[in-house]
Amino acid sequence: MNRDLSASCVAILLGSYNGARHLQEQLDSIAEQSHPDWRLIASDDGSTDATRELLERFRDRRPGGHVVVRSGPGKGFLANFLGMACDPGVQAPYYAFCDQDDVWEADKLARAIDRLRTVPAGVPAVYCTRTHLIGEHGEPLGYSPLFRRAPCFRNALVQSIAGGNTMVFNEAARALVATAGAQARVASHDWWVYLLVSGAGGTVFYDSWPSVRYRQHGSNLVGGNVGSKARLRRFVKLLEGRFRSWNAMHCRALQEVEFLLTPENQEIFRIFTHSRSAGVARRLGGVLQARVFRQTPIGNLGLYASVLINRF
What is the Cα 224 distance to its own chain's centre? Predict the structure, then answer.
């Protein structure tokens, strides 16, 4: 990727796999951004439909290295996104994760860069937002949950608050991800970025403005949900083994890069990890001492229920 970039250039990291059905609409929304200073790196993970053809056509219409199409590692969405974020050949002042089947609002990048510019150089920062959920054919379905508590490491330990498809982050945040490595075994790239940036004492901007029309359909790898039934499903998932396995995965991954955390967050992390293997009284006491939290009352109810039955 051309390193002769302006101070506001955004490297858009698009992961694709058999997404031809909706990809063109996403590419059009990138082309229509009010912030025109971007470069697109599209990593295709072995598509067998017309995805690669659409990407190459988009590239050919924009000469000068503005669009790079390459082959992904073929190991799933996590390895694909982390591979791009950790690639030393991809360098820019800012980065944005991009899914293949969403639609970006025209001011998505501009609004993100306005926020990120307020952060001093060298301080890790990530901008993320709420989403507008749409159906297979673009019909509105509602919005992702609105979170009102300030993002922080205590929240990140037990909850991912925004999808990677909304995330824009600076070079200092990318450096954290690169230090942790492309082989990090975590639940998702977006949750991992939230953990690393908040844990390192960086800045996390959560914008209630929906920057993305997030398409919901059967082939979503990780979908967003809305409504009381969806909230109940999330509550039930907290009591299932998946939540505990995610926490175990993140604890192991963070232990590998614990030196990146601030001293305060190292102590929070120590209390949290030790409480997970303790008896019920010490589990509950540890979680209370660490002051971890989820963003909603029902989410916290599920969190403490999972602590009591040893599912966190």
Answer: 13
What CATH number is attached to the domain comprising 128?
Answer: 3.90.550.10
- 35 with 169, same domain? yes
Q: Which of 67, 16, 20 is nearest to 45 (CA)?
A: 16
**Verdict on whether the full-model pTM lies above 0.90:** yes
For the four alpha carbons of 130, 136, 137 and 141, in that order, the dihedral sign comes to negative
Name the nearest CA neighbour of 23 among 52, 59, 66: 52
Residue-wise pLDDT tens digits, 82-133? 999 999 999 999 999 999 999 999 999 999 999 999 999 899 999 999 999 9
Asked which of 179, 202, 222 is the last residue of a domain, the reply is 222
Local structure of 196: helix, strand or coil:
helix
Helices 280-290 and 263-276, axial angle in degrees (round to 10): 160
Q: How far is Cα 89 from Cα 116, in angstroms, rounded to an integer?
A: 23
Residue 5 lies in a domain: no
Q: How many domains does the chain have?
A: 2
211 contacts 275 by C-beta, under 8 angstroms: no
| Contact indicator for 211, 129 with CB cutoff of 8 Å | yes
